[in-house]
């Protein structure tokens, strides 16, 4: 470029010098000098023209090269500008696509939140009234929407990571963090379950050790103590065989449990009555009058005599008779007449299997824990009805000074008191006996001794022990204490009765 400028300056100087040496006025000189001057000027001009022509050709060549270089540079600049423009267009398209993707993601988030809200409302509505199936479906829906929100959150983090700095490494880091965050609650739940399994294993091992020690001690017993321990051992064997199939022996063992829990609850109730300064004789007379029937005129006439006989030492048997009559009422029906179900008639085989399955599931359960989870289950309704039937409002107010326990039971809950706990032990034993009765084929037949009936040792046993172990003659049934059962294998569970001399 510098060379071109220099040549152009020289050319201008040469042209200016030529104009100064050969002015235009020279053509007006004398004619005599015209030829000579013209000839000299012509030759000089011709030389100058030739010189100028060469210079101009060089300058034109260089100028053409310069123009070509400028055109090449312009083409390069245009191509760079076009690439930049194309790059900007591509960036704009990517940005628009990301905005659209984020809008779609937010729409999905709002839809998921709305669906989770509806599922949670359904979950709340399933609590009242209690609907386990609807509750299960709503719970699954809520968990599903929460998982969906977790997936959407991961997608959002991935989108942000792709748009930021760090590239693939950042995406992987966020993805791993998100995965750990999602898995963490499940890992914690698994750890809790593992701890629970370990504690249960320890508990099982302890129970096995206790059973082993008990078996050893039972095998070393003799005499009367040995016989009683043998009975307990048989009961343990029967309890161990409960998972196999219903059997008459299992029914007998459960009936023995009913007797023990009935005695325990009766003793507690009688002690509370005495602590409240009840008139036990009046209470016995009231119980006797309530149990007497119109047909038993003789019994009615001798109610006072019987009451005076038993009140001194055996009032507990009259009270146990009252409790047994209330608790066994409706035993012959599959639901204690709590509803009109006829499943035992429509599908007897399936009903028997279901009853024994319930027996196995409930046998090892604490009744208060079961009712704490399912207060309105069939067993909970049974406890409600029997408690209200056995414990009169005036009785409860006299024993405890208020009706708090009764109000809790009427409200559908179950109090955690000693008295109600003893009642639940009796209620559970009766409920298990009932389940076993309807799981046996044929079902046991229930019978009860009537007042004034002759004593039959084949079907009855006296709750009062006589001296010498023999029952004297002339004894009749003063009142029944608990019913008896005749089983399908021909064995008989004797009815317990309170005997009085014939009058």
From TrEMBL:
The keyword Coiled coil applies. Residues 98-217 form the DUF641 domain. It comes from Hevea brasiliensis (Para rubber tree). Residues 26-63 are annotated as: Disordered. Residues 36-49 have a biased composition (Basic and acidic residues). InterPro entries: DUF641_pln, GIL1-like, GIL1_IRKI_C. The lineage of its organism: Eukaryota, Viridiplantae, Streptophyta, Embryophyta, Tracheophyta. Residues 50-63 have a biased composition (Acidic residues). This is DUF641 domain-containing protein. PANTHER family: PROTEIN GRAVITROPIC IN THE LIGHT 1. Residues 447-498 form the GIL1/IRKI C-terminal domain. Keywords: Coiled coil. Residues 190-224 form a coiled coil.
């Amino acid at each position: 470029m510098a060379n071109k400028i220099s040549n152009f300056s020289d050319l201008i100087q040469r042209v200016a010098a030529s104009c100064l040496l050969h002015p235009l006025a020279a053509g007006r000189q004398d004619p005599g000098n015209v030829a000579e001057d013209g000839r000299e000027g012509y030759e000089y001009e011709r030389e100058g023209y030739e010189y100028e022509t060469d210079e101009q050709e060089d300058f034109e060549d260089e100028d053409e090269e310069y123009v070509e270089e400028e055109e090449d540079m312009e083409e390069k600049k245009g191509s760079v500008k076009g690439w930049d423009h194309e790059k900007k267009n591509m960036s704009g398209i990517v940005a628009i696509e990301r905005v659209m993707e984020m809008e779609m993601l937010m729409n999905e988030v709002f839809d998921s939140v709305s669906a989770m809200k509806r599922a949670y409302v359904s979950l709340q509505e399933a609590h009242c009234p209690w609907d386990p199936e609807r509750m299960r479906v709503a719970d699954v829906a809520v968990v599903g929407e929460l998982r969906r929100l977790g997936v959407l959150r991961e997608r959002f983090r991935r989108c942000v990571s792709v748009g930021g700095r760090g590239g693939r490494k950042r995406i992987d880091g966020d993805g791993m963090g998100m995965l750990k965050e999602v898995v963490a609650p499940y890992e914690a739940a698994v750890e809790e379950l593992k701890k629970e399994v370990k504690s249960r294993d320890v508990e099982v091992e302890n129970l096995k050790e206790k059973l082993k020690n008990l078996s050893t001690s039972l095998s070393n017993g003799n005499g009367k103590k040995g016989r009683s321990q043998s009975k307990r051992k048989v009961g343990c064997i029967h309890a161990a065989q409960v998972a196999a199939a219903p059997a008459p022996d299992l029914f007998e063992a459960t009936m023995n449990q009913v007797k023990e829990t009935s005695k325990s609850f009766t003793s507690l109730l009688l002690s509370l009555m005495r602590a409240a300064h009840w008139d036990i004789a009046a209470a016995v007379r009231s119980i006797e009058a309530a149990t007497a029937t119109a047909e038993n005129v003789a019994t009615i006439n001798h109610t006072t005599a019987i009451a005076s006989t038993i009140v001194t030492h055996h009032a507990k048997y009259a009270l146990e008779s009252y409790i047994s009559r209330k608790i066994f009422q409706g035993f012959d029906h599959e639901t204690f007449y709590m509803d009109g179900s006829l499943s035992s008639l429509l599908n007897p085989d399936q009903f028997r299997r279901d009853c024994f399955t319930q027996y196995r599931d409930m046998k090892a359960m604490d009744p208060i824990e079961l009712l704490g989870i399912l207060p309105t289950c069939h067993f909970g309704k049974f406890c409600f009805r029997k408690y209200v039937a056995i414990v009169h409002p005036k009785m409860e107010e006299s024993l405890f000074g208020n009706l708090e326990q009764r109000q809790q039971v009427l409200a559908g809950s179950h109090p955690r008191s000693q008295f109600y706990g003893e009642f639940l032990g009796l209620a559970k034993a009766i409920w298990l006996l009932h389940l076993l009765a309807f799981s046996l084929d044929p079902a046991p037949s229930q019978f009860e001794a009537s007042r004034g009936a002759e004593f039959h040792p084949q079907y009855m046993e006296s709750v009062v022990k006589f001296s010498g172990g023999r029952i004297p003659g002339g004894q009749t049934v003063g009142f029944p204490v608990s019913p008896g059962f005749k089983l399908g294998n021909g064995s008989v569970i004797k009815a317990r009765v309170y005997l009085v001399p014939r009058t």
